[in-house]
Amino acid sequence: MKITDIRTIQLSYRAANPSMSAASFNATRNALIVEIETDAGLTGIAEAGSAGGPPASTAAVIEHELKPLLIGQDPLKIEYLWQLMFGRSRQHGRRGIVMHAISGIDIALWDIAGKAAGMPLYRLFGAFTDQVEVYASGGFYQRGKDLDGLTREAESYVERGFRAMKMKIGRYDFTGTNFRRLLNQPELCVVTPEEDIARVAAVRKALGPNRRLMADANCVWSPATAIKMGKALEPYDLFWLEEPVATDDVDGSAEVARALAISIAGYETEVGLFGYRELITRGAIDIAQPDLVWSGGFTECRKIAALAQAHNMTLSPHCFSSALLFVAALHFAASSPNVVMVEWDQTEHGLRTELLNEPFDYDGAGMMRVPEGPGLGVTLNRDTLEKYRVR
Length: 391
Ligand SMILES: [Mg+2]
Description:
Layout: E1 3-21, E2 24-38, E3 43-48, H1 55-70, H2 78-88, H3 96-117, H4 121-124, E4 131-137, H5 147-159, E5 164-168, H6 193-207, E6 212-216, H7 223-233, E7 238-242, H8 250-259, E8 264-266, H9 272-281, E9 287-288, H10 297-310, E10 314-315, H11 323-334, E11 342-345, H12 350-353, E12 361-362, E13 367-369, H13 382-388
Parallel strand pairs: 4-5, 4-11, 5-6, 6-7, 7-8, 8-9, 9-10
Antiparallel strand pairs: 1-2, 2-3, 4-13, 12-13
The chain binds magnesium ion.
């Protein structure tokens, strides 16, 4: 079998009422779809990472840099092709856009491998389970959403059977760093730390004592601010505090982790085995959160999972983009013994709800069944692709 073509499709969805974290204003949600054709009639599909910039940038890396390395190659030599892409691009790659591009290629290659084997990927990887816990990822800042609105949102997750929920925190005018000044629309939905603590208290009350609550600061705090806020939030029994400080402040995150009785989770904004080696071995995190479409696809993230396991550490893959990423995360989770939960974005997002022909198999009690078809086990809805296609 040989790779004959690689195509990308750029998609963009515009949210009616954008959600905001401490570090983002999500007016548009983009996704870059990758399709790899073979001479055997098998086509692999995947999403490649495009967050933080236009999908055209990742598409250009795939088209001009990776595709020439891959045309004519055996698509089942995935480890070799991964090392070829990573090694050849090392001077201007290693992280960022090139790693996002490699991630999409890798997942699409594995989709081909699963289809060639006639097995769903989680079984090809040696299944640990066939259903995984999903948590409701929401609790964003949003215009018009007050404390009552946030409470009603948390109650809606309880009604839908979720056993865990994540919310956003940290959208202050000053967070101990100047990071928030650099962002798009930093002036919207700003709260005080006291108002934020009230938000967490309201959600904890809505969830009751037996459901897990996680809070995500999206890298905006200094270590001192993180420790102060973390201590103030300890009465609300957070299951984890996510990305409290800057991605590159590994020592600062380790300082926060030592100072708090709350587990530190992160860093979705770090990528690759070498990046996670630093986070894990230097004590910067208690729970690892690689994103499949940013952090090297299945090939690299399975190595990150193994490294985490060697440190008795659990993972919860970051997953905040299209339905294709979500399905990839389910296969990864179901085949990794130390994955505890997968993130399920609950914000309004057509590329999550309309992209696939197959509906998600949620049991109404916090668990999601993994698709059983070959490869990723899903197909793209062509009408949706045309509806949201920008290129
Ligand atoms: Mg996060």
